[in-house]
Specification:
Distance between the termini: 73 Å
Helix content: 10-25%
Order of helices and strands: HHEEEHEEEEEEEEEEH
CATH superfamily of the largest domain: Trypsin-like serine proteases
Radius of gyration: 20 Å
Strand order of the largest sheet: 1-2-3-6-5-4
Strand content: 35-45%
Largest sheet: 6 strands, antiparallel, barrel
Number of strands: 13
């Protein structure tokens, strides 16, 4: 009887699949699971249709950060959380035209999970970055890359992490899960809408100035 029990236990143990993640995968998984609850999708009705983008919850009381070009000329803005709850948003504060940043406010009954801001002054070319957004409506999409270049003249962080239409306003993250930039645009010399590995983010320190 004892032998049968041992054999059964061994069979159960060998039948359980074992998944081994490397350090890089563990970092990606950890950052995504921690940050994605604070990422929202944004749909704004504009004169010629709907403008869609991504946003970050930066305050538990329902303050959302996104790119101003996503909601420009719209009075009907809907914010949808990663859990599927939708809220009508109002515009709280907008940065100057060259900043392309705006704060939205949604009315919530309970505190929301918010992102943590990093320091974009510490960003270095070559460091790994992650982006979460809603490209082409595929909500909660994670991509990875590196900081390819820092454009000091235009005050932009260049990255090869995949950013596509719908990603605007989403976070560019370091491996600690801190937001170091807000994804804004892609370079498309052929006038197409797909990513060719050259994307730009607004440094998060610009956001800190907006909040002040």
């Amino acid at each position: 009887m004892k032998k049968k029990i041992i054999i059964l236990v061994l069979f159960i143990l060998t039948a359980i699949p074992v998944f081994a993640y490397d350090r890089d995968e563990i970092t990606n998984i950890s950052v995504y699971e921690k940050i994605n609850p604070a990422i929202v999708s944004i749909d704004a009705k504009i004169p010629n249709g709907t403008s869609s983008g991504t946003g970050c919850i930066i305050n538990p009381k329902g303050v959302v950060l996104t790119s101003s070009h996503v909601v420009l000329n719209s009075k009907d803005i809907i914010v949808t959380t990663s859990g599927g709850e939708s809220y009508k948003a109002s515009m709280l504060k907008r940065a100057g035209d060259n900043k392309d940043l705006v704060l939205l406010k949604i009315n919530v009954e309970k505190p929301m999970y918010a992102v943590k801001m990093g320091n974009s002054s510490d960003v270095r070319v070559g460091q790994k970055v992650l982006a979460i957004g809603n490209p082409f409506g595929f909500n909660g999409t994670l991509t990875q890359g590196i900081v390819s270049r820092i454009d000091y003249k235009r005050n932009k962080i260049q990255t090869d992490a995949a950013i596509n239409p719908g990603s605007s306003g989403g976070p560019l993250l370091n491996t600690s899960g801190e937001v170091i930039g807000i994804n804004q645009a892609i370079y498309n010399p052929d006038n197409n809408s797909s990513n060719i590995g050259i994307g730009f983010a607004i440094p998060i320190n610009e956001v800190k100035q907006l909040i002040k």
